Amino acid sequence: MTAHKKIYALFAMLIAASMLLSACGNATPTNANPPATNPPAANQPAATEKPAAQPANTEAAASTSKYGGTLKHATQAPTNLDPAFLGSVPDDEVARQWHDFLVFIGENNEPDPARGVAEKWDTSADGLTWTFTLRQGIKFHDGKEMTSKDVKFSFDRLRDPKVGAATVALYANIVDISAPDAYTVVFKLTNPNPDFLKDLGDYHALIMDAAGTDFATQWNGTGPFILEKYSPEDRITFKRNPNYWLKDADGQQLPYLDGMEFVFIADSTAQVEALRGGQVDYLIYLPAEEVSTLQSDQNLAVYQSPSNTAYVLHMRSDRKPAQDNKVRQAFKLATDTEAILQGAFQGLGTAGSGTPFGPIYGDFYLKDASAPTRDVAKAKALLTEAGYPNGLTIEIACQDRSPVPAICTIWKEQLAEAGVTVNIKMVTTDVYYGADNMWLEADFAITDWGSRSYPQPYLDLAYTCSAKWNESHWCDKELDNLSAQAAKEMDHAKRVDEYQQIQKIFKERGPIIMVFFINNLWAANTKLKGITPTMGLGTAADLRYVYFEK
């Protein structure tokens, strides 16, 4: 299993999602007031000096009162700090703190020109040339100015097969990257890509120092925090970058925190206990079963936001029994996804409706989408038509990590009512995604797929005939043709129609039961303010705006 799959699979994966139709208006703490400070909606001037200690106006005074304090965050230990090879949740979250993106993807999964190193961009009429203008005066932590040379280097490295980053396929559509002057970068594409800006916001796409030689051990970024100390078995410590370029809405320099400590605690229960005991201030990807306990604690706030991280039950479609669509439809009719969501994940998400695209994708999401009404009698009739009048016995591969065991147990009980005996093969996550690729070979299995900022990657990675991770071994030529069209369609209305057609195919003959999409879940000390939940990866919460209430 590659690093690119790991981080998304572990997010709910963890990884591996999300149900908002608009922006972050509903993404508020469940037992606290909405965040007091939101990221800016417009470009802010670059900053090279510390904010004035005694601002002249009330708004600025309120802003400077946010400065100070060290955030302590419990997380698992990272495995690789080279952005090209980030492969886990902590890898991603840690690397974001001392780097910047060319294009920052905001909480609503849309590019935000205020928060990346590109202050503006435009594209040619044919969609094949993208030109980015960089902010001037951005400095690496060693004092050297970041220029177009560094941006070009960063993306050339990510698309170089010899380097072997997980992003080679993602950026294969790039023909050339040029830097005509110090603050201009030009990308030329083979085909139009309506999602190109979002591709540039991929979690690996952090801007690197072109003079660097070993990015796993040389931590010279442009980001809001400077990596001060790394103890692989204990913690990673950051201090505030005093020359960071981004300012808040009041013109005060970010970040607010003096520093951060990412404390390595492997066990999720121990992480929760450390938060409740005050040893740490912040957690991401909460276990659903801990949410009610944390909500009842007056010293803690729980935040959640819809995502497209999903638990997907695949039915291998190149051999019996799921080779027959009647069997696949029967299994869908025998399944109650809402009951599984409530029983396995405390209802903290959205029940699946048969398509890998969730409600967060707005008008791309299938109109009037709903799961089929559970009909056990019809399921039995379809199984009889498929040649199984007396039912059948199947085996499902299940990871031993929550909430998968509960999903498998509930589904086993539901399928039994339709005459299907489900034997559960429980394995560790390492075995499931290990060298033997059980998740790609099993006839029935549950995989956790992480949230993407747009829907096309699911088709490219899992559901087209030649997809690298086509775990269901499904091939539908009509879907392939529609997917290829949607991938390069620059007309939004036409693209909406193509995605609608694709989702109808999934509902009519698709190889998956979309069990549910989870809500991203965070928890924090109530004194920690400025947290804005995201619809994408939980690691992407923007800690530049976080501060301790005094």
Feature tags:
disordered N terminus, Dipeptide-binding Protein, domain 1, 4-stranded mixed β-sheet, Dipeptide-binding Protein, domain 3, alpha+beta, 550 residues, 19 strands, single chain
Low-confidence stretches: 1-59
Number of helices: 16
Fraction of residues in helices? 25-40%
Superfamily at the CATH H level of the domain at 307-519? Answer: Dipeptide-binding Protein, Domain 3
- What is the count of β-strands? 19
Oligomer: single chain
Task: Based on Cα principal axes, name the global outline.
Answer: globular
The structure class reads alpha+beta
Average per-residue pLDDT, rounded, comes to 88
Largest sheet descriptor: 5 strands, antiparallel
CATH class label of the domain at 307-519: Alpha Beta
- In angstroms, what is the radius of gyration? 24 Å
Which architecture of the domain at 307-519 does the CATH hierarchy give at level 2? Roll
N-C termini distance: 46 Å
Could you please say which CATH topology of the domain at 307-519 applies here? Dipeptide-binding Protein, domain 3
What percent strand? 15-25%
